[in-house]
Write a structure and sequence with these properties.
The structure is a single chain. A hairpin with a 2-residue loop joins β2 and β3. The chain has one domain: RutC-like (60s Ribosomal Protein L30, Chain: A), CATH 3.30.1330. With 137 residues, it is α+β, with helices and mostly antiparallel strands. The two termini are 22 Å apart. α1 crosses α2. 24% of the residues lie in helices and 28% in strands. It contains 2 helices and 8 strands, in the order βββαβαββββ.
């Protein structure tokens, strides 16, 4: 990243560690971008839950941990990308947990069906970064 862009790597033990060459989150130019998180327990690395509702709740806990590590929360999210292993079967259950967890007005969101290999949902987010005077616009 060039000198004009101030970037900060965001890391927390309260979310799963990267399994490859990527960061949990990067804060840059007033926004926090997260990696895609699945429903993995940060301590054991194992998938939490068998239903879409249980797994969605764990993904949101993982994303919340990264947000909190940078002083933000789910109410700061402006964009969500969601991958569902079984899009048609699981959308309603996913959406119910998401709707109850993410405060309105809801972020923009893209939801797609994807091959996830052993779990049901993965999400990444973009959040506006808080400053001492409020959110960066």
């Amino acid at each position: 990243m060039d000198d004009l862009v101030r970037a900060l790597v965001v890391r927390t033990d309260d979310a799963p560690a990267p399994a490859g060459a990527y960061s949990q989150g990067i804060a840059v130019n007033g926004f926090l971008f997260t990696a895609g998180f699945g429903p993995h327990d940060p301590s054991t690395g194992r998938v939490v839950g068998e239903t879409i509702e249980e797994q969605t709740a764990q993904v949101l806990r993982n994303l919340s941990a990264v947000l909190e590590a940078h002083g933000s929360g789910l109410d700061d999210v402006v964009k969500t990308t969601v991958h569902l292993q079984n899009l048609h079967r699981d959308f309603a259950g996913f959406n119910d947990v998401y709707r109850k967890s993410v405060p309105g007005p809801y972020p923009v969101r893209t939801t797609v069906g994807s091959e996830l290999g052993g779990f049901l949902v993965e999400m990444d987010i973009i959040a506006a970064v808080r400053t001492p005077g409020g959110l960066v616009s």
